[in-house]
Design goal:
Blueprint (H helix, E strand, L loop, with lengths): L1 E8 L6 H9 L7 H6 L6 E8 L5 E8 L7 H8 L4 E7 L6 H12 L4 E7 L6 H15 L10 E3 L8 H13 L12 E9 L3 E7 L4 E3 L3 E5 L3 E10 L2 E3 L1 E3 L3 E7 L11 E3 L7 E10 L12 E6 L2 E13 L33 E12 L6 E6 L5 E9 L10 H9 L2 H11 L5 E2 H8 L3 H13 L3 E4 L2 E4 H21 L6 E2 H8 L3 H13 L4 E3 L2 E3 L9 H17 L6 H6 L5 H13 L3 E5 L2 E4 H15 L4 E3 H8 L3 H13 L3 E4 L2 E4 L1
Parallel strand pairs: 1-3, 1-4, 4-5, 5-6
Antiparallel strand pairs: 2-3, 7-8, 7-15, 8-14, 9-13, 10-11, 10-15, 11-12, 11-14, 16-19, 16-21, 17-18, 17-20, 18-19, 20-21, 22-24, 23-24, 25-27, 26-27, 28-29, 30-32, 31-32
Helix pairs in contact: 7-8, 8-10, 11-12, 14-16, 18-19
Bound molecules: guanosine-5'-triphosphate and magnesium ion.
The site of magnesium ion has 4 residues, from helix 1.
Amino acid sequence: MKSIIVGTAGHIDHGKTALVKALTGIDADRLEEEKRRGITIDLGFAHMELAAANGEKLRLGFVDVPGHERFVRNMLAGVGGMDLVLLVIAADEGVMPQTREHYEILQLLGVKHGITVLTKSDAVDAETLDVVRLEVGEFLRGTFLQTPAPMISVSSFTGAGLEDLKRAIVAVAAGVRARDTRAIVRLPIDRVFTIKGFGTVVTGTLLAGTIHREDELEVLPARRHVRVRGVQVHGHAADAAVAGQRTALNLSGANTEELARGMTLAPPSTLEPTRRVEVSLRLLPSAPRALKNRARVHFHSNTMETVAGVVLYERKEFEPSLAKNARVGHGTREARSESTGHGGLSPGQETFARLKLAEPALLAPGDRFIIRQFSPVVTIGGGVVLDAATISRKSQAPDFLEILNGGNPEKILTARLARRAERGISLLQLVSETGWTKEMIEEQFAGALKTREVVRAGALFLHAPVVEKLRTRMESALAEFHKKNPLVGGVGREELRAKVQATAEVFEAIAGLMIREKKIEVTGDLVRLPGHGVVMKDEEAESKKKIEDAFATAGLQVPALQEVLAGLKVDRGRAQKIVTLLLRERTLVKVSDDLIFHRSALEGLHRKIAAYKAKAARIDVAAFKELTGITRKYAIPLLEYLDRERVTRRVGDVREIL
Ligand SMILES: Nc1nc2c(ncn2[C@@H]2O[C@H](COP(=O)(O)OP(=O)(O)OP(=O)(O)O)[C@@H](O)[C@H]2O)c(=O)[nH]1
Ligand SMILES: [Mg+2]
């Protein structure tokens, strides 16, 4: 079963609501004021089912919009989810101002499927109808509604043409692509109300994904968590609503005052509201004047609206051949001229821009939007959101935006990866930046991971050139260290990480990679280049063994270091270096200025304390001495060591075992 959203558009009084009623039997004008004044003020909804050509059921959700010029903002809240639009033009009036304005909006929003409906055919004679047909055909030329898109004349009064219209809807609907299943669930709210005995209900057109009963969702930008108590699709209770359906949700966790049109429901902690978006922006050829850099405009996207400041980037000439097409984004490189500075955007032109929103909104790349002049309020342009996760205050590189605009998911992901440079980016961050599911992202990266263009580093993805850079830094840092410290076994991890300037996560990932490739070696805490580090002469190696053994056999009753060194064949200086080496390797551990222990002895101590903890939560010096069999001389520094290691904590005269 296919579900699509059919929207109306057109001038006031041209018979949109009457047509929806003639088709569905439902009066979409639900407000008392609408009924009294005989006009539509806010969005209206209806639904019906038709049989598709293949015999399957076709579910149609209708969104009926107001034609009055004062209510264009309500129309904009409804137009976002439309798959197929009925452009309604009364045969006795022809093309009127809001016919044009609505039609321009539909094109800016990238609506691809539609039917032109000439209403009130009963009110004109056949000749007039023919003339209107020609006029309207001319008006539509070069756009998504030009022939072969159907143009059908109907009368909602006599029913003439309605069957033709239904057939045309079925035919056009067959070409409507199913909603994106690779995108994260998003339901922009268009209505909020209460039903007695039910509580809070919100409605909207589900843009992507599936919402089930009992799902936990987050209301954004309010960041309120709610639970779905019930789902209704087309007025009937359902277990789930799927993308492309008019959806009503009964929610717990929020009351009507806390929810409003313009907010969006999404999975919890997945998507981020923003106040800055990078966009591709087109000014309508009919815009009254050029759009100045830093102009303020009204911004509408999905069901939300706010005020936005426009920062124009390098200008992109708008291809004349596209001028009447619905193509707003996805411009080609050729469509962009050289930088023309910030002289403003002329009518008919297209450019990249940054929009600064007065309030945070949940927007995702690919979302279409409309801008209206601040005052007087008229529709002047629109475009597509390219990036809603601007990580820099500076202008984005045009190349980056060009790739986002290009629409190739793999290239987009790689560009987003490259933008994060040394920090890398996690799968969850990518989900939040793109609005795509994890599965979609992993699938898109599969090829690049194989060719090593993208490298997976723990929870992070890194771009290959960045990995290369870090690897080079690591190698030169190590080479330099070995040159300066020929007798030392390697650099400590933290020291090396600081030199490489990588986060802990990225550093570990790169190190892991290099270990597997045998480009570096690691012993304990020390990292070195293969073949580097300590090259010991026989007597040095023998001395090293002697020192190690002396401490290993001593247990916790360690000898003084000087005593051990005195018995060696090598001189003082070299002996000291060997001790440094053992300390770096963490074979030996310095516990106080004059006490050094073998690692194995300390490990034994840790085990003893752990076992003791099973009997008592606290230990004092006497008990510690008894437990370890050592004198006060060793006991005090060892206890202080344990405090530092957070194995124990001193409380007065005793130690709490942690
Ligand atoms: N003769 C005739 N009149 C019609 C037909 N359809 C609608 N009308 C009349 O046209 C007027 C406007 O109809 P609506 O359906 O409310 O128009 P609308 O486009 O929804 O108007 P708004 O929502 O306010 O923009 C009403 O008085 C209808 O009775 C038709 O097929 N034939
Ligand atoms: Mg109406």
